[in-house]
Amino acid sequence: MQTEKPILYNYFRSSSSWRVRIALELKKIDYEYKPISLIKDGGEQYSEEYTKINPKQEVPALYIDGQLLLQSLPIIEYLDETRPNEYELLPKDPAKRAKARMIAEIINSGMQPFQNLNVIRRVAKETQSEDKKQEWIKFYLTKGFKAVEDILKDTSGKYCIDNQITIADLCLVPQVYSAKRFNIDMIGFPNVKRVNEELEKVPEFVRAHAHHQIDTPQELKEN
Amino acid sequence: MQTEKPILYNYFRSSSSWRVRIALELKKIDYEYKPISLIKDGGEQYSEEYTKINPKQEVPALYIDGQLLLQSLPIIEYLDETRPNEYELLPKDPAKRAKARMIAEIINSGMQPFQNLNVIRRVAKETQSEDKKQEWIKFYLTKGFKAVEDILKDTSGKYCIDNQITIADLCLVPQVYSAKRFNIDMIGFPNVKRVNEELEKVPEFVRAHAHHQIDTPQELKEN
Prior knowledge:
Chains A, B: InterPro entries: Glutathione-S-Trfase_C-like, Glutathione-S-Trfase_C_sf, Glutathione_S-Trfase, Glutathione_S-Trfase_N, GST_C, GST_Zeta, GST_Zeta_C, GST_Zeta_N. Chain A has 10 helices and 4 strands.
C-alpha cells in the first residue's frame, strides 16, 4: 500500500499537528516532516504553494497512500484502521470507543477552536483588548477541562480510558500544554493532570512533543 | 442489549442535535424526545436538573444502553457500530471513511463552534456590535463551506461520498440550514447545494428536520 514516504505538513506548537505526530510515532510510521510556520511572513499556511496543497490553509495535513488527508481526528482514525499494531487507538468495546471519541471531540471541537491562533487574534482585534482575549481563552478551556475531568473520573486508569493509550490521550497532552501556555489554573482537574503526567513519560509522546521538533525554536528546545 | 427506550436530550434547531436525529431515523431506533430549550429561561441546558444529566450543559445527549453519550459525532459512530443495518454511515473503504469523517469534522469543529448560540452572543456582547457578529459568522461559515466544496468536487455522487449516505451528509443538511438562517451566500458552493437538495428528499431526513419536531414553534412548522 505504502510506496512513498508519508509527508506531514505541520507546525511544532499546533496542538492538532501534535496529535497526529503522536499517532505516527505509535504506529511506527517513518514520515517526512514539512514545517509550515503559522507565524512567519503572516503565516506560511496562506502561501500560494501551501494553498495548492491544502485549500483550507491549515495544519496538519498528511500526504499518505497517494492522497492528502486533513483534520487530525479523521487522520488518526485512518492510521488506526490501516496500520494495526500493538497500539490500538480506539478500544474494542463500543461504549469505551465512544468515551474515547467523546474526550477527543470535547477537546477538538469544544476547546481547540477557541484557542486557535487566528480566532484569538480576531477576538483581540475586535475587542481591542488583550484581557478580553485572555478571558475568552480561559472561559472555553476551563469549560472543556471540566467536561473532560468529569468523564475521566469514570473512565481513567493510567490513561484516559483504563490503561490503554487511545485517541483521547493523543488530544489530551497537547491541550494541557496549551493550557499551561495560556496560564489556565489546572487545580480543579486532578485526573487530567495525573493522566497527562503519565503520558508525558511515554517515549512516543516524548518524541512527538512540541519542544522536540525540527522547527522548534532554539530557546524552547530541551535536552 | 437495549432494554429501555433511548432518550435524546435535544433542541429542534441545534444542528448537532439534528445530526443525531437523522442517525436515529436511519438506524430505525425508537426514542424518547426530551426537548431542552436553548432559549427559554436563559437556556434550559443550564438548569440544575439538566446539569446533573449533562455537566457540559449542552445538547445533544443520548441516553442509550444504560449510559449517557455526548458529542454528536461519537454518538453517530456508536450507533453505526452497535446498530448495523442497511444504512452504513461510514463507507467500508478506509480512504472514503477518512473523507466522510473529514467533511463531518470540518463542519463540526471548523464551522459549528463559531455559530454556536453562546459563542455568537459572546461575540456580540464583547464587540457591542450585531454587524461584527454577522461578519464573524460569515467568515467562518464561508471558510468552512469552501473547504467542504473542494472535497465534494472529488468525492460526491448523489451524496457527499458517492451514492451512500454517510456521517458527512448528516452534518451537511443542518449546516446548510444554519447558513440560510444567517444569510450566507451559497452561490460559490454548487456541490454543497446540489447534495443538500438530494438529501432533503430522503424521508428519514425529512422526519429529523428542525421544522418537524415536537418543540418546533408553530410558525416554523410545515405541513
